[in-house]
Amino acid sequence: MAFSQTTFLLKQVLLLHLLCSIITTSTSAASNTHFQILNVNESIKGSRTDHAKMSQYNELFERHNNISSSNTSSDEARWKLELVHRDKMSSSSNTTNNMHYHRHQHSFHARMQRDVKRVATLVRRLSGGGADAAKHEVQDFGTDVVSGMDQGSGEYFVRIGVGSPPRSQYMVIDSGSDIVWVQCQPCSQCYKQSDPVFDPADSASFSGVSCSSAVCDRLENAGCHAGRCRYEVSYGDGSYTKGTLALETLTIGRTVVKNVAIGCGHKNQGMFVGAAGLLGLGGGSMSLVGQLGGQTGGAFSYCLVSRGTGSSGSLVFGREALPVGAAWVPLVRNPRAPSFYYVGLSGLGVGGMRIPISEDLFRLTQMGDDGVVMDTGTAVTRLPTPAYEAFRDAFVAQTGNLPRASGVSIFDTCYNLSGFVSVRVPTVSFYFSGGPVLTLPASNFLIPVDDAGTFCFAFAPSPSGLSIIGNIQQEGIQISFDGANGFVGFGPNVC
Ligand SMILES: *[C@@H]1O[C@H](CO)[C@@H](O)[C@H](O)[C@H]1NC(C)=O
Ligand SMILES: *[C@@H]1O[C@H](CO)[C@@H](O)[C@H](O)[C@H]1NC(C)=O
Ligand SMILES: *[C@@H]1O[C@H](CO)[C@@H](O)[C@H](O)[C@H]1NC(C)=O
Ligand SMILES: *[C@@H]1O[C@H](CO)[C@@H](O)[C@H](O)[C@H]1NC(C)=O
Ligand SMILES: *[C@@H]1O[C@H](CO)[C@@H](O)[C@H](O)[C@H]1NC(C)=O
Can you tell me which residues form the catalytic site (predicted)? Predict the structure, then answer.
């Protein structure tokens, strides 16, 4: 008990330090900005709890089976959802790949495999091809199905109510896509999910959408069948959903939202780890954020809690959720990919020193190529190869005293920290356009990849000029989107 409290305090210290480095522009506490302490023993222990505490997670899920009825009067609480990582989901859902999660190594390798697929999909959609990309995607549909896909999509999940009366359903959250959908009866093809499949016949608020309606026009990939608006979305990793568009009531936290355009998926593939569907949080007009529009001012905020901590994160909608004191960075619009949240990154730092690399490596081109995307669905941050190599070399140069280990999975820079209680490592920072500097907690860039004390530098080269800020680097930091004004905020809260 005392141990875990110490970790918690240590984390707070690291994150408070993060807060300081965001806010201060001067270099007052010079020594603090150069090094951090990674608590090795606690990091490994944290990852072990993942499988040691499966039964506890099952309990957690049972408790979650009702939509939260906690009675708080603040506006923030009205729109608040608990955010759960998939490693917890898998213990409650009965998917065939359940066994993968019983051991940390398997879970890690599975996660990295999914990550490579996710990145390949993003790169295909967002790099090269210019205006052809959209066409390409349509063509891909149906031909790109990977049979026997065993990992599924989605890293983080929330629980919302669908229909009237509300049926609780787990939803994958995705900051990189727009459509909100659930598997729907009658199902011509549904994958296994942990809740009963949603049946429109049991909902008083369900109404179909005709082909001629304005909302049907807003769909990228609309079709028409017997007068009904049809949608289809392919996620490029083999998962897809097809069905009809409908207006339905959603219950988000304690807030009831009527007439949300959702896909009622009659034909779906992909595992989505037992979730009923997907909650698109992208920047387009069909995403939940886009549809809530005036009600929430295009604003939402989330906290991805570190795996292995046993606690949950949160997702909150509305301007009330936007914190005071965050470091705000302008969002960059890519007309070619309006769903994605691009940010202006200007550089990287190690040990308090900015690495000499060109800012152009991170720039979104006139053609809509390259640039830096914030993505909840990608685990490991990807950087253009020249940027990655300079960054890694600077990190290696400042950790010369640590014993190296051979590369693991997508990581080429690993350390054998077996036998260490804690190590001193250089700080790692993102320099954003406009000045804010985000200094990461040590546990966001040096992660355990097995139970034996191997830790890796958790960045990887991008297969293209596209950079992606992944969820491992976002963990524990409150991240807020102010869509209306075009900013993303980091901090100041820890979670
Ligand atoms: C590291 O943690 C393990 C179990 O969590 C404990 O048995 C061991 O004594 C710890 N090692 C040190 C050096 O504190
Ligand atoms: C949900 O709450 C109701 C009333 O509080 C209770 O009767 C029911 O058993 C709960 N359902 C689940 C799945 O926990
Ligand atoms: C919530 O609490 C307030 C006062 O604190 C009370 O008036 C209200 O009836 C409560 N609502 C529910 C649903 O319990
Ligand atoms: C989960 O799997 C077990 C064993 O395969 C089976 O007995 C059980 O009925 C399944 N539960 C659900 C809810 O599908
Ligand atoms: C890591 O170092 C320990 C000694 O500190 C050693 O026993 C172990 O074999 C090393 N592991 C690897 C994979 O090299």
Answer: 174, 375
